[in-house]
Amino acid sequence: MTTIPQHVPTDIKHYINGEFVDSVSGETFEVLNPSTNEVYGKAASGDKADIDLAVAAATEAFYNGPWPSMAPRARARVLNKIADQVEAQDQALAEIETWDTGLPITQAKGQAQRAAENFRFFADLIVAQHDHAFKVPGRQINYVNRKPKGVAGLITPWNTPFMLESWKLAPAIASGCTVVLKPAEFTPASAQLWAKIFEEAGLPKGVFNLVNGFGETAGDSLVKHPDVPLISFTGESRTGQIIFGNCAEHLKGMSMELGGKSPAVVFADADLEKAIDSTLFGVFSLNGERCTAGSRIMVERSIYNEFVERYAARAKNIKVGDVFDPATEVGALVHPEHYDKVMSYLEIGKSEGRLLAGGGRPEGFGEEGNWVAPTVFADVKPDARVFQEEIFGPVVAITPFDTEDEALELANNTRYGLAAYIWTSNLERGHNFAQNVNAGMVWLNSHNVRDLRSPFGGVKASGLGQEGGYRSIDFYTDQQAVHVTLGDVHTRRFGADD
Q: Which of 202, 211, 229, 355 has the greatest number of C-beta atoms within 10 Å?
């Protein structure tokens, strides 16, 4: 077996009420290294019994522990200590994520800093936060009282897992909630870091709980648990539909960031060099396993041939290889199941478009590991499956357009609506196009560079609700309106004789 980096855990456990524990059933599942598909460790496989224990611990910590009632400044101090601990784990995290997910090491590095920034951001936000007050002089004052909702169920994906876990953990904990985290079963390793980080930062026992396992067992039990009033989920759209239905019985709060098939629209007046750089990065970084990938590129016909030729040449030059080599740009896909899915789309694409780069395993790679060459299909029709369906790999479909109206129709011609990217030097057109495209987030002359204060989420099949900034605080808290009388209340006296 390939040598395992020293920081990678091989015996992955649950973390419940401040203790690492095995499953009640004793069940485990195998964890694979994507570069070879060798089994390198085992993880505790949770089910209803483990979720029940985790929810009980989180419920006790919420109702009888100190965390929900602590002053914002006191919680913020703990959050900043968490950020310090996260940053100190940078090297360990990079090694774990690269080994466990197949991400190139240069893209795994910096994930700790991004995760730490999430905690610092919400530490600042809860201290500076203020709520509305409304006054009718001499008659009434009304104010909003925020209260944490309770135990938050957090279900996270396998692409950049640690950093995406921080997107949910930071606002949930900052708001005063307690949590049960269910990481993705493909990539459970890095979540183990949270337990020690939270302990050393002084987070009270029971505020954070972790249960590993599969969606059908651990995830399903968490979603259906009557003592978990809200669920935050990031994953694919079909799973989101199932969760939506299962939340209905208890009328749970839901926030779901789901799949995407995001358009990148390149007009003839765009800075072509920057557009090519950005659209290449947008679909091939993180191995193409990103929900906001601009995997459908629409190019104005007058520059289409030049764009396609230059784009394909660059794609052929992308370095695929050893995930620990700093020169590597695309690594191994996360798991054999996902690899098979992506490879099936490559075969579909060969009958739906003109193959200009990739189309299979890179040259020189044997049968081990989940390696896919960066793949470019051109002249793809709008109804093609590779144009319509989320592939979640290093695969892009490119098609021409003639008019702005046609470009908008192509951009909106999908069930998804997560992100969109627009490239033009005409800012009037850019702003108007952005308002008309059906996407929860739009980047104009940029790839995915996000301000943490802004909302994050999609429309249509790409999500339900939004998080980020105050919207996250809104999700994890109830907003109670308090009305105080300042004078006589003139009430009709029902039933009075006078």
A: 211
